[in-house]
Specification:
Elements (H helix, E strand, L loop, with lengths): L2 H16 L1 E6 L5 H9 L6 E8 L5 H9 L3 E3 L2 H6 L1 H9 L4 E4 L8 H6 L4 E5 L13 H10 L4 E8 L9 E8 L6 H25 L6
Helix pairs in contact: 2-3, 2-8, 7-8
The structure holds glycinamide ribonucleotide.
Length: 211
């Protein structure tokens, strides 16, 4: 085989060993998923390999198509049984899972397969305004209703409870008296786009080598 072909062959067949592969789970619009995909588009160590959603009508699937990222949907039963999800993650040699607006509790088989390798973003300053049912606008409505002076984002490891894993990073934004929940949502989204991709990058680059 000529030298150049050997190099090409090696590059193609070892890419998954060099690059850390991320899977994003999302249930909704997917604006965070898009920001993450775009951040890693030309990265030489990390790539977003696929996007998974529990909702066949989620706009994140349209974004995935436009971004040329393979996307999959699954049913509640498939999620609970695990075989389908495991197969997808294995096919893409996934090292790390990012939850970006994903609303189902994470089952034991995923927690076991990705110890310290699965993180979530929550649109408030945990431990406040977290837990089951606290997602999206529900969070911002509650924050404004309680007269909070600030809100923000929490990026944390995932465990068997909603929003209770160890916190990795938080950023805050002020809330003024005239801010509506929609204003707060916008401010929080800006923080998410700014910080989530780079925190993912930091955490993924600290992962132990695959054996
Ligand atoms: C984001 O604000 C994320 O923090 C939140 O859902 C939104 C998804 O937006 N997640 C939660 O509330 C989890 N409890 P997106 O689909 O446009 O990325």
């Amino acid at each position: 085989m000529p030298k150049i072909s050997v190099i090409y062959f090696l590059l193609i067949n070892t890419t998954h060993l060099i690059m850390k592969q991320i899977a994003i789970f999302a249930s909704g619009s997917g604006s965070n998923a898009q920001a993450i995909v775009e951040y890693f588009q030309n990265h030489n160590q990390i790539r977003v390999a696929c996007i998974l959603s529990n909702r066949p009508d989620a706009y994140v699937l349209e974004r995935a198509k436009q971004l040329n990222v393979p996307a999959y949907t699954f049913t509640r039963q498939e999620y609970q049984e695990g075989a389908t999800i495991r197969q997808i993650l294995q096919n893409h040699q996934i090292d790390f899972i990012v939850l970006a607006g994903f609303l189902w509790l994470i089952p034991g088989y995923l927690l076991e397969a990705f110890p310290k390798a699965m993180i979530n973003i929550h649109p408030a300053l945990l431990p406040k305004f977290g837990g089951k049912g606290m997602f999206g606008m529900h969070v911002h409505n509650a924050v404004v209703a309680q007269g909070e002076k600030e809100s923000g984002i929490s990026i944390h490891y995932v465990n068997e409870h909603y929003d209770e894993g160890d916190i990795i990073y938080q950023a805050t934004c002020p809330i003024t008296v005239s801010d509506t929940p929609q204003h707060v949502a916008q401010k929080v989204h800006q923080l998410e786009y700014l910080h989530f991709p780079r925190i993912i990058e930091q955490v993924v680059l600290q992962l132990p080598e695959r054996h």
